[in-house]
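User: quick one
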Amino acid sequence: MKSQSMTRRLAAVGLALAVTGAAAACSASKSSTGAGGSGSGSGGAAAGGTFTVWDPYPQFDSGSAWSRLLTKCGTQAGVTVKRTGFDTTDLTTKVLLAAQQGDSPDVLIVDNPVVSTLADAGVITDTGTTHLDTSGVAPNLLAAGQLAGKTYGVPIGANTLALYYNKAVLTTAGVDIASVKDWSSLTAALAKVHAAGKKGITFSAIGTEEGSFQFLPWFWGAGANLKQLDSSQGVAALALWTGWLKQGYAPNSVIDNTQTTSWQEFATGQYAFSENGTWQLANAKKAGFDYGIIPIPAMNGGTAAAPTGGEFVTIPVQDKTDRYSTSQKLVACLTSADNAQATDTTLSYVAATPAVQAKQVAADPDLQPWIAAVAAAKGRTSDDLGTKYPKISQPMWTAVQAALSGSASPQAALTTAQNAAAAATK
Amino acid sequence: MRTLRRPRTTWWKTGVGLVLTALMLFPVYWMVNESLTRDQDMRKTPPNWFPVHGTLDGYRAVLHQQLPYLGTSLFIGLGTVVLTVAVAAPAGYSLAKLRPRGGGLLSFALLIAQMIPGIIMAMGFYAIYLNLGLLGSVPGLIVADSTIAVPFGTLVFAAFMSGIPGELLQAAKTDGAGQLRTFWSIVMPVSRNAVVTVSLFAFLWAWSDFMFANTLDSEGGAQPITLGIYHYIGNNNQQWNAIMATAVVASVPATVLLVVAQRYVAAGVTAGAVKD
Amino acid sequence: MNSTTPLNSAAQPGARAARDTKGVPGARGAVLTAPRRGPASGPRLTSANWAGWAFLAPVAVYLVAFYAYPMYRNIELSLHHYTVRSFVHGGAPFTGLDNYRSVLSDPAFGPALIHTLVFTGVSILFQFWIGMGLAVFFTRHFRLSATLRALFLVPWLLPLIVSASTWSWMLNSDSGVVNYALHSVGIAPIDWLTSPKWSLASVIIANVWIGIPFNLVMLYSGMQAISPELYEAAELDGASAWQRFWKVTFPLLRPVAAITLLLGLVYTLKVFDIIWIMTKGGPAGSSATFATWSYQLGFGNLLPEFGPGAAVGNLLVVMALAFGLVYIRAQRKQREA
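Assistant: Done. Structure below.
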């Protein structure tokens, strides 16, 4: 009696849920009422309607230069711009959800490794459809937004990684920065710093894409390739990091550090080196101590290829294709030379076109090493990896975490990662 | 009537109470500490127990930008409480006392409902609200936040209301009161405890909710203060002292509300506890 | 409390309605039991039924409107093979239980299961008993007790991102205040968040901290309904404080405690924010639970895998269901005892 009534009850619940769920789903299913909402009560400022822009810059509120730029571009294109800033980690999901419901924004600014995913999902248009002009953009920077021969957006700017160093700490330790040219000299410098009672280097090895981002310059600098994670070069790169941790040249907290908290460690003034990005320039100037920058050295000398960061401006697919011409005007306005320079200065990015880069250097010579770094940088989804990259990146950061926390040797960790990546990208 | 108070021992208990509360609230103190810390001292080894070289930058940013959000948060919190109690109390009463056919099924469904991960709920709501045009609206957010509390509230009301003596209800029925009247005049006053418990949780859940606000109100005009935190989570940099300052500023009025409510409640509970 | 909890089927007639003139919930032992009172037959049943459903109508509408669709969607996601393209444009092929099979055979499954069970079990154990202890402590009113009790709820005012981040900072290996305090009493620093040995313990500690207010409030409210006369009677009989707790408080608290435990279990199973913010389920999956794994599959990487993510989420629901059934069974046993 007990079990019978229980079974009956469960069946009834299941049936009820299924029936109501189906009914709800039918009515709530994707109804394309046209995306972006045009002319919904735009306060008379522009005749052309409202265009929505989504960007990953929630730190800019409505009074900021970025918001004002968007409004200005809107006015020039004859429309009102409604802008929303999202957390960059959330934005992909939001865009996919919105696209599913037919509610994509008109202009979408999104982090570059995500562009391949969105392109593959058919969420964003390629430049052939929207006639976006990408001629001035440096090819290595454009590569991240390209999939199967088509380009899917324009970079708004670029950033990459380099080694910041604290001049005072290096002087105390008796290290000449000019001597740091490859891995062995870097490690030797760290040893000296450690012996002098200071801390060596800090970076971010957290279990997210940020960790992969920070590991890549060393991985590529050893000559390794993302298609073969457990090559001897790959293992050498990971062994470099684990060696530093073991010897105390890098703090244990790197395993949990984001790039922000890693910078905070460097900002205490106790560290000699920090691997961080172009966007920290503004913070570096406020740090209160003398700092310098060197490109990340490759294993045997030279500059390691660092991954490109920075966002792409894209135009999502819309049902009403006549909106593309206005969206294209908005994008062109945002990425025009003067506007791009202003935006990139605010974001502390390097411009995407050599022409604007020259102007940046003229205005701020400190940017020169960064421009060189960006020129040598590589997109994460380039090398024809596209949407395979995320499936490789995740095992890679897991391997880094495993090795650094001592759960596995670098070789074992990377072999596991390679097997996982190979299985996922089959 | 409570136990006789023995003045000697109450002070000792107060002392212990203070220590326990201090232990419990230490992380909150640490949050305040961080909200006043400069960026370059955030990772200082060893850390400062007290924000020695404090900075008010975080608070300046918050007070400058976030204050209107407090009002919205309060509105949402109170709205959620009202909606939750309004929906859950009758349901709890029904499950506990009226026990209609299929009530057990509903209880079971309520239990299952709480097991759905928050992000799945948020995604579902997004689709529903988009089609209803409720995205970015405050009433929509109130309804969404109440879904956290309603199943819980129903089960709690049912649990507490089961303890209401049958005679009370019988007496009301004999006097000719209808169901609604019985519920409103007899059951509710006697369930003050449950109302307070459910209201408390509904308010707290709505006040601290981030997930629904983020998914459903990002583009809205009026936003709760939890979304205000987003201003300090940039795409590359996070301003931790401002984030913590936002939380502190958000907590102060709510704490005051809680303390006041508890005092009022304590008085009410003693007076209106279920007694013969 | 009426030992027939609402979770029992209404089709079970003759529920023993415990009734106590002091309003003690579910007092057993020295309690007058009313004559068996079940739903009467005939017209009164119908009217009671209608009234019952009228009162239930809002909640029923609620359930259908807001829970049915997400639940359905979650199940549907787990039964198809979704790529990002098919998520957006539709047309995902039905693959039956394939997602579940791949999840079950994933090497991360075993550790995640163990971590989920350990995390939930240990958290509940500590949360419940600390909450119980505090509730007992606060029951005897003293100066400031109301204010202090209110202050105990302050952790719940904070969005989880803030409280989890604060714990993260406190437990930092190098600059965290916990290690600093340990250092000052001579204990070597512990890598709370970055060592596979300690990561699970760290998130459990933070979770217990967050769970205490819930248990405190629920148990305290339950204790409020226990009449002091019972305590006085026990005291007159010579019972010590300890005995009073075990013989009077605990049995009378059983229904409230049961629902607190059940809800606590369900909520703890779902906990994800705390772990995600503190350790991201790492390092190397050493603090990964089903909740974090589900999120990681679906949203935590650059290429969402909605199918497997939903499958893991459904497994969580099944686990919680299992606990729910245990609860119902325990209630029924108690009723029949």
